[in-house]
Amino acid sequence: MILIDGKVIAEQVKAEIAGEVKEMIAAGKKRPHLAVIIVGHDGGSETYVASKVKSCEQLGFKSTKIEYEDTISEAELLSKIEELNKDADVDGFIVQLPLPKHISEQKVIEAIDYRKDVDGFHPINIGRMSIGMPCYVSATPSGIIELLKRYEIPTSGKHCVVIGRSNIVGKPIASLMMQKSVPGDATVTVCHSRTRNLKEITLQADIIIAALGKPEFLTADMVKDGVVIIDVGTTRVPSTETKSGFRLKGDVKFDEVAPKCSYITPVPGGVGLMTIVSLLKNTLLAAKGEIYG
């Protein structure tokens, strides 16, 4: 069993990005600039945004953090998005999800200029991705592809089962895995909470991408020997063993499933670390004008 180390790969990609930023600045070009809007005080979101800002500093990016209370109106938020769309210095920006109930996430996503949508959530980027055109691929699916690529895990002709159908992970990773590319070229089955014979399907899988947000859902009796498992789940569960009072659990019951795997990602230390790196990669592409000029 080989543990897919997200930390090692994330550091490799960060070093490559930092090198490119140095070259850009040496050539007299401007620093890539990422802006992040965060609304309210969701613990997970605040931690995530803080690590995005820290990563920007490490790689030589410029970053702007815009914070609002959760009482902000939808109109006010949309007006700020319009301002960032027009700001020539900002190469890419994201609005951290989830948003308060009175704000439409879909409206916010569509308000972002797709050429600055480094989260890859805009319908234009999603549409381009699904037909294999250049675009900003959303961060988590992009991170999964990067892990498969760097570990040289064969995917062509393999049966890949995706558990979960979210717009952020399940749907885009299913689309990427079936494309004529490497990694990709797989036969893809998408399962979800209404799938009846789930165990029957997962037992046929060569690769399982678990992205349903239910801790320790996937157990040893659901997988065959030699399977590759990518665990996207990150659920905070209470724990007396940690200082914070909680620990992160994946969607896979790691201790019993890992011995059957050829490759598996741990939680934490797997896909999550790649998500931020993918966002920074998209921001670099935006700064270079490589996707949309």
List strands and helices in order, with pairings:
Blueprint: E1 2-3, H1 6-26, E2 33-39, H2 43-59, E3 62-68, H3 74-86, E4 92-95, H4 105-111, H5 123-130, H6 139-150, E5 159-163, H7 170-177, E6 187-191, H8 198-202, E7 207-210, E8 227-231, E9 235-238, E10 246-249, H9 254-257, E11 261-264, H10 271-288
Which keywords apply here?
2 domains; 293 residues; 17% strand; three-stranded parallel β-sheet; Rossmann fold; 10 helices
Structural account:
The protein is of the alpha/beta class. The chain has 2 domains: 31-113, 3-Layer(aba) Sandwich (Rossmann fold); 139-272, NAD(P)-binding Rossmann-like Domain (Rossmann fold). The chain contains 10 helices and 11 strands. A 6-stranded parallel beta sheet has the order 1-11-8-7-5-6. The longest helix is centred in the N-terminal third of the chain and has 21 residues, at 6-26. The chain starts with a strand and ends in a 5-residue tail after the last helix. The relative contact order is 0.16. The mean pLDDT is 95.
In short:
The chain has helices at residues 6-26, 43-59, 74-86, 105-111, 123-130, 139-150, 170-177, 198-202, 254-257, 271-288, and strands at 2-3, 33-39, 62-68, 92-95, 159-163, 187-191, 207-210, 227-231, 235-238, 246-249, 261-264. The chain is of the alpha/beta class and 293 residues long. The protein has a 6-stranded parallel sheet with strand order 1-11-8-7-5-6. Strands 3-2-4 form a 3-stranded parallel sheet, with helices on one face.
CATH class of the largest domain: Alpha Beta
Helix content: 25-40%
**Largest sheet, order of strands side by side?**
1-11-8-7-5-6
Query: Using only CA atoms, what is the Rg?
Result: 19 Å
Number of domains: 2
Query: Which architecture of the largest domain per CATH?
Result: 3-Layer(aba) Sandwich
Order of helices and strands: EHEHEHEHHHEHEHEEEEHEH
Overall number of strands: 11
Query: Main sheet, how many strands, which sense, barrel?
Result: 6 strands, parallel
State the end-to-end CA separation: 43 Å
Spell out the CATH superfamily of the largest domain: NAD(P)-binding Rossmann-like Domain
Query: Overall pLDDT, averaged?
Result: 95
By DSSP (H or I, 4+ residues per run), the number of helices equals: 10
